[in-house]
Specification:
Shape: elongated
Structural class: alpha/beta
Distance between the termini: 103 Å
Strand content: 5-15%
């Protein structure tokens, strides 16, 4: 009894499907919709007619008109058909017996009389010009219509079309197309925990609605470039198994006023039709920059687009199933209206990974890489402080390319070390010819950096010293490897770092009695440290616990906005300059004292660099022990 309706007849099932489709019911997405068109019928008719003519022509034998006249005189033809341009019939005797023939007709008044004399039946046929009319009139019209339709599709059908300028240029990823889960994200565990609640809401909204809770409408991912903000948003969509709408903030703004607002409306309309889903806006600062921030005047189109975004974010319910996620690395310039509760309720910081996070990220990126037994990912993570996920992915790729270039079967630690040097210092340029004097200056310069770093208490250990030119302007470099991740710097640590930067310049002056242009970047960084100590960190006893900078700076980018007029007197400015100069001069005197006491070690290190060009950290420490024993 219960199995009566399990299987319906095929015809009834098809009929019901058609009824449901005609009434607007749900259609099977796997079935393609077939549309009948008159053009299909016309093309099929022309193809059938052409095939028929070809097959008939293949069955007939073409003969000259003179041969046809001879066959008539012999009485060897029958069923003759006289057409305006040809004569056809059937041959009854000879080698071509029982074959149909065709001959081009010529003006012959005697033909009918001859056929009557021989008693051969014949008939006439008018030429059919219907097909010719179809070909001469309808074919050009069909070509014109098809060409016009192609132009219209090019102009308005795609996201780049001229007539679709108000459509959102959004990339839509279906549930199975995202292909990224939380297993593909590492090093940002805190952010993953924050976003797990979003995933649970999309999978089981009743759990939160039962107690009257509302999921945050918007989630703002804030972090430095390359930390994995976009990857994290895709992982949320992949975990929840919902469609993912991805769009950049710059895709909204165009030169035409009103286009951006129209695209915002279209984006949210598409999202509501596909709820539950996730809208992801990358580089939100291109769209959501604070209104009125530019004193000259804002861009009307950008401000209208931002206003429309604010309206749309207020226009749908929190439990509608549409989650808005956005990413930016400049949250300080965003409009406050975007950041208030009810729009982007939750701000998730995606910070640079620590040493354990870097190791976890490396393990994800080396899944498909054949590693040698000597590869220690923990050591590689320790050698890459400040690297984000994108840097580590590039590091693994560079190491794999180096191993392939050397025809190795596995990627070893040497390739990882060289890839780190290449990313930090640039491409190695062994063919750049330096004269012996310049090479000696570079050797003592880098030896000065390394020696000072080995003799101040708060400097990071030296991992490598090289005098091989790299990149555009680097003639050598000293690499230090931190023992742990640091988030705060004390005054003594900053002074020691400043001393290490001055080590190269002081070594040149001490050895050669002259200085070169090679310390330009060192002096710039040393001046920045001293200026920050005096103006930002309040580390001057003379000026006291006062800060003198008010320009907004990005927490994730090494840049600030347009500087504001200073709010201190000329006398204070002079005191600031004096304090900056004092800090640098005291550090200079300290470095000169260290290098003077260690002059013998400085000479030996420079000589070894001139011979070997590269000194690893262990080799440096062995050289130091050897010099001490002498």
């Amino acid at each position: 009894m219960a199995q009566k309706s399990e299987r319906e007849p095929a015809g009834l099932q098809d009929l019901m499907d058609r009824v449901r489709q005609s009434m607007g019911g749900g259609q099977d997405p796997n079935k393609r919709k077939v549309h009948f068109s008159f053009w299909y019928f016309l093309i099929a008719l022309m193809v059938i007619s052409w095939i028929h003519d070809v097959m008939v022509q293949q069955q007939r034998v073409q003969i000259p008109y003179s041969q046809f006249k001879q066959l008539v005189q012999q009485g060897s033809v029958k069923n003759v058909v006289i057409e305006p341009n040809r004569v056809t019939g059937e041959i009854t005797a000879g080698e071509l017996a029982n074959r149909r023939f065709a001959a081009v007709r010529v003006e012959d008044p005697e033909l009918v009389r001859l056929l009557d004399e021989k008693g051969i039946p014949y008939t006439g046929r008018l030429e059919n010009r219907i097909l010719e009319a179809i070909l001469s009139w309808l074919l050009p019209m069909a070509f014109f219509i098809l060409f016009w339709g192609f132009l219209m599709r090019r102009m308005g059908g795609g996201p780049q079309g001229v007539l679709s300028i108000g459509k959102a240029r959004v990339k839509i990823y279906a549930e199975k197309q995202v292909g990224i889960t939380f297993d593909d994200v590492a090093g940002i565990d805190e952010a993953k925990v924050e976003l797990q609640e979003i995933v649970e809401f999309l999978q089981n909204p009743e759990k939160f609605q039962r107690l009257g809770g509302k999921i945050p409408k918007g989630v703002l991912l804030v972090g430095a470039p390359g930390t994995g903000k976009t990857l994290l948003a895709k992982a949320v969509a992949g975990e929840a198994g919902v469609p993912f709408f991805s769009m950049s903030g710059s895709d909204f703004v165009e030169m035409f006023v009103g286009v951006g607002a129209a695209r915002v409306r279209d984006l949210f309309a598409q999202a509501k039709q596909n709820a539950p889903c996730i809208i992801f806006i990358d580089e939100l600062d291109a769209l959501g920059k604070a209104r009125g921030l530019n004193p000259v005047g804002g861009h009307d189109e950008r401000e209208q687009t931002l206003n429309q975004l604010l309206v749309e974010m207020d226009g749908f319910e929190a439990n509608s199933g549409v989650i808005i996620m956005a990413a930016t690395n400049r949250p300080e310039i965003l409009d406050p209206a975007l950041l208030r509760p009810g729009r982007f309720d939750r701000h998730v910081a995606v910070d640079k990974p620590d040493i354990r996070g870097r190791e976890a990220i490396l393990r994800i990126h080396v899944r498909n890489v054949q590693l040698d037994d000597d590869v220690d990912l923990q050591k590689v993570a320790a050698m890459t402080p400040g690297f984000v996920g994108a840097d580590l992915a590039n590091l693994v790729n560079e190491a794999a390319l180096l191993a392939a270039r050397r025809n190795k079967d596995r990627v070893g630690m040497a390739e990882f070390q060289e890839a780190i040097d290449r990313i930090i210092g640039g491409l190695e340029k062994k063919n750049r010819a330096m004269n012996p004097k310049e090479k000696k200056i570079v050797a003592f310069h880098e030896a000065g950096h390394a020696l000072v770093a080995m003799n101040v208490p708060h400097a990071d250990p030296v991992n490598k010293v090289s005098i091989i030119p790299r990149g555009i302007a680097a003639l050598g470099y000293t690499q230090q490897m931190p023992t742990e991740d640091r988030y705060l710097m004390t005054r003594e640590e900053l002074l020691d770092r400043l001393c290490v930067l001055l080590g190269g310049r002081v070594a040149e002056e001490l050895v050669f009695g002259d200085v070169s242009t090679g310390a330009q970047n060192d002096l710039q960084r040393a001046t920045d440290i001293a200026r920050s100590m005096i103006m930002e960190y309040g580390m001057s006893e003379k000026l006291g616990l006062v800060t003198f900078t008010r320009e907004p700076r990005s927490a994730f980018l090494d840049m600030g906005m347009a500087p504001r007029p200073r709010e201190y007197s000329e006398k204070t400015a002079q005191e600031i300059d004096d304090e900056i100069r004092r800090v640098i001069e005291e550090s200079y005197a300290r470095v000169r004292e260290i290098l003077t006491k260690k002059r013998h070690f400085l000479d030996r290190m420079a000589e070894t660099l001139l011979e070997q060009e590269v000194l690893e950290g262990e080799a440096l420490r062995e050289l130091e022990r050897h010099v001490r024993s002498e």
